[in-house]
Amino acid sequence: xxxxxxxxxxxxxxxxxxxxxxxxxRKKVVPAAEGRVLEVGMGSAINIPFYxxxxxxxxxxxxxxxxxxxxxxxxxxxxxxxxxxxGLPGEEIPLDDNSADTVLxxxxxxxxxxxAKALGQMRRVLKPGGRLLFAEHGEAPDDDVRKxxxxxxxxxxRIAGGCNVNRQIPRVxxxxxxxxxxxxxxxxxxxxxxxxxxxxxxxxxx
Length: 206
Hints:
The chain is 35% helix and 27% strand. The chain is an alpha/beta fold. It has a single domain, classed as Vaccinia Virus protein VP39 (Rossmann fold, 3-Layer(aba) Sandwich). A seven-stranded mixed beta sheet has the order 3-2-1-4-5-7-6. Strand 4 (100-106), helix 4 and strand 5 form a beta-alpha-beta unit. Helix 1 packs across helix 3. The longest helix is centred in the last third of the chain and has 17 residues, at 143-159. It is globular.
């Protein structure tokens, strides 16, 4: 990775993903995690304060970016539960089958190149009866916004670490072998509409 990816991009992503509206979305989802948790795309560990520590045995943090792992170090040091880094992409989860009680995705599916393979890996490591918790942004329901998403996406991916603003999140999750048990959606206040349509909820294995 170059200087931008290692030193500048982690700072930009942490700033964007730590904005007030985004933190409110995290608070809606992260506290439901329990047991042994696989957090895919842990980034700068911004979710750590939102876990309910009384329900957590440990967290595996899957994060391929060395720059993000370095930025996460202070938050990891303050975590009230064990955190183990897995320095690989979402398509390569080095855990045994049926290892995790919860898989957590927060603003991650937009960046994984082979999201179908990654979701297959998440399904493999999730225990029967376990839950996939997600908070993601993606394709907007309005034609005019979707047109802007299509126009902006090629440029956006290049400057935002591979982030896609127009992925069909429910379809992506269901095609990955999960059944969505509950989902909420809205345009997030205080964010550009092209990147601000939110999906959050719970899914289980089919």
